[in-house]
Amino acid sequence: MDINTDLESIAASIVENTKAIGEYRLKDSSGNIQLLPRDAPQEAQHARQLLLQASIQLQQLCTEPSEFLDQAQIHYQQLSAFQWLIHFQILQHIPLGTDVSVAYEDIAKAANVSSRRLKSVARMAMTGGILAEDESQRVKHSRISAQIVSEPALLDWALFITRYSAPTALAFARATERWGDSKDKNETAYNLAFNTPMAFFDHVSQSEEMTQHFAGYMRGQGRSSGLAVEHLITGYDWARLGPAHVVDVGGSTGQIALMLASNFPDLSFTIEDLPSTIEESRIQLRDIDPSIASRISLKAHDFMQPQPHEISHLADVYLLRKILHDWPTATAHKILQNLVSSMKPGARIVVMDTILPLPGTFPTPQEAALRVRDLIMAQNFNSNERERDDWIELFGSTTPPLRLNNEWQSMKSVMAVMELVIQE
């Protein structure tokens, strides 16, 4: 197929899918246009994905090699500008609303930065859709920046990306040069970026501020459409369990258990995590509906250790959402073995994690999001996301072995839901 035919095909896809989502567009309370509300029908969400895919294909097809390098410079400077804005809390100094603007000098004074520097940074960020200017060269929010600053979970996510993830990614080549293909959790890009001999989670746990940032990041991840909790709610038949007890292993501050408990009144939960995170959970969950709170308990526990008997004799399901991908195979095996050794008859494990696709088998935006997760695992933990065969091998390595009983994968999710039972 020649380039003209490709361009015509992509253009036709853009027109078709733009029409498909047009009727669902709406304005939010600040007057900003939302491309699609989160509860738009499946067909509209699919059309949005196809529109995004076509726009990426169009850009790739029209980009010359020298322009690719120009774009690389643009992207890292946009990220640098975003980091600067987040660090100095610039977004919080701008009133919400598409028609409300503020002078650079006023923002600079409030944030204690140079107005000249602020203008340079903000205008770079504007080329990526963050912030905007009105006709009088005053700053206002764009659709994207308004939503980020309006939702604490998104702001937490932005903080973690710019303060922790980006510096770690930049240290990746140096880490490989220094340690090669090391599997040690304290010989990573993160160790170089933050000049620490400690493994990621050990380092985070030493600082209350970092622990809070990581918990906020996890909450923010839940706002990503590809990482949304809804995929866990709809991707597994929780209702068929009837009255059952679910142990959320490494459950952070309890947002996943809370969502599941809200949707499935027959289920009760134990949230397990390290002591500092459990204390944060108590704060996060103290004001919830009593009918839900009565079904959620908290337990300080390190999943590198065997399950406590008072938990294992209750557990019908062990939930591992975004846990195993953090760890190399030997450690992931240990985590699973600790559960297998404690499982009562009929209990099962539900794993929600990434299954890496073969190149080109998923739409580019979804595949790229999965590749990001794969590199994050390498840079922080010397681990990696796994392909399907890797998962099967890992599950079968326990004693007795686990068997993949069922598997669900939504095209909107970057994670699959896998149900494991002990192989008979």
Name some characteristics of this structure.
424 residues, 4 domains, 7-stranded mixed sheet, two-stranded antiparallel sheet, 51% helix, methyltransferase, WH_DNA-bd_sf
Share of helical residues: 40-55%
Shape: globular
Tell me about the largest β-sheet: 7 strands, mixed
Q: What distance lies between the first and last C-alpha atoms, to the nearest angstrom?
A: 52 Å
Taking all residues together, what is the mean pLDDT?
A: 90
| CATH topology group of the largest domain | Rossmann fold
The CATH class name of the largest domain reads Alpha Beta
Radius of gyration, whole Å: 23 Å
Please report which band the strand proportion falls in: under 5%, 5-15%, 15-25%, 25-35%, 35-45% or over 45%: 5-15%
- Contiguous runs where pLDDT drops below 50 for at least 5 residues: 27-31
Q: How many DSSP-defined strands?
A: 13
Number of domains: 4
Structural class: alpha/beta
CATH superfamily of the largest domain, by name, is: Vaccinia Virus protein VP39
**Number of helical stretches of at least 4 residues:** 19
CATH architecture of the largest domain: 3-Layer(aba) Sandwich
What's the arrangement of strands in the largest beta sheet?
A: 7-6-5-8-9-13-12
